UniProtKB/TrEMBL annotation:
<dbReference type="InterPro" id="IPR007627">
    <property type="entry name" value="RNA_pol_sigma70_r2"/>
</dbReference>
<dbReference type="Pfam" id="PF04542">
    <property type="entry name" value="Sigma70_r2"/>
</dbReference>
<dbReference type="GO" id="GO:0003677">
    <property type="term" value="F:DNA binding"/>
</dbReference>
<protein>
    <recommendedName>
        <fullName>RNA polymerase subunit sigma-70</fullName>
    </recommendedName>
</protein>
<feature type="domain" description="RNA polymerase sigma-70 region 2">
    <location>
        <begin position="30"/>
        <end position="97"/>
    </location>
</feature>
<feature type="domain" description="RNA polymerase sigma factor 70 region 4 type 2">
    <location>
        <begin position="126"/>
        <end position="177"/>
    </location>
</feature>
<comment type="similarity">
    <text>Belongs to the sigma-70 factor family. ECF subfamily.</text>
</comment>
<keyword id="KW-0731">Sigma factor</keyword>
<dbReference type="InterPro" id="IPR036388">
    <property type="entry name" value="WH-like_DNA-bd_sf"/>
</dbReference>
<dbReference type="InterPro" id="IPR013325">
    <property type="entry name" value="RNA_pol_sigma_r2"/>
</dbReference>
<dbReference type="InterPro" id="IPR013249">
    <property type="entry name" value="RNA_pol_sigma70_r4_t2"/>
</dbReference>
<dbReference type="InterPro" id="IPR039425">
    <property type="entry name" value="RNA_pol_sigma-70-like"/>
</dbReference>
<dbReference type="InterPro" id="IPR013324">
    <property type="entry name" value="RNA_pol_sigma_r3/r4-like"/>
</dbReference>
<dbReference type="InterPro" id="IPR014284">
    <property type="entry name" value="RNA_pol_sigma-70_dom"/>
</dbReference>
<keyword id="KW-0805">Transcription regulation</keyword>
<keyword id="KW-0804">Transcription</keyword>
<dbReference type="GO" id="GO:0016987">
    <property type="term" value="F:sigma factor activity"/>
</dbReference>
């Protein structure tokens, strides 16, 4: 693993548009970036496109990164880059789903029963992420921003250009759909390989 001086050297090279430094930083952060963007996309090609767009923004704005802000330069860089990637995912969502404004919050979506998630611990991280990726783009975006990124419904409303009610409704429906997807997967998994 690279230490702070190596990371600082890479950043210095990137600030000077040194292609070798950019390439090395790209390969250092590519897996990290793919994991973040994978949650927001339907296809691997789309994920790679967003990741590459994120790297373009990173290299374009690298001079704004303050590496002295935190003791661990790589950790600080990943946090800064994560924000760039999430904003790039949101921009991509807006571009590809500009006609989707979410759904109005209804009595039905407010009274969805919160069923116990029996057996969810049997599912792997990859299976859960795959289930999230099966959600519609509107539901997936709100779910990721609320549950994973910790944004409020007001922040999601401003970020995606939808009403607070639509954000709440999309989250409720995303959770219900995700619950059904995970339960179905768990039932299939239990059927295929019953407990011993």
């Amino acid at each position: 693993m690279l230490d702070n001086s190596n990371i600082s050297s890479l950043l210095s090279g990137c600030r000077k548009n040194d292609r070798n430094s950019q390439k090395e930083l790209y390969y250092l952060l590519r897996g990290f970036a793919m994991k973040i963007c994978y949650r927001y996309t339907n296809a691997m090609e789309e994920c790679e496109e967003i990741v590459n767009e994120g790297f373009v923004k990173l290299f374009k704005n690298i001079h704004q990164f303050d590496e002295t802000r935190q003791e661990d330069t790589l950790l600080s860089l990943k946090g800064w880059f994560k924000r760039i990637l999430i904003n790039t995912c949101i921009d991509h969502y807006r571009k590809t789903n500009s006609s989707v404004n979410g759904h109005v919050l209804t009595h039905e979506s407010e009274t969805i029963a919160d069923q116990g998630e029996n057996g969810i611990d049997m599912l792997s991280y990859k299976e859960i992420i795959e289930a999230i990726r099966l959600l519609s783009p509107a539901y997936r975006a709100v779910f990721n921003l609320f549950v994973i990124e910790g944004l409020s419904h007001e922040e999601i409303s401003q970020t995606l250009g939808i009403s607070v009610g639509a954000s709440k409704s999309n989250l409720s429906k995303a959770r219900d759909n995700l619950r059904k997807l995970l339960q179905n997967k768990n039932i299939i998994k239990a059927y295929v390989s019953p407990p011993r």
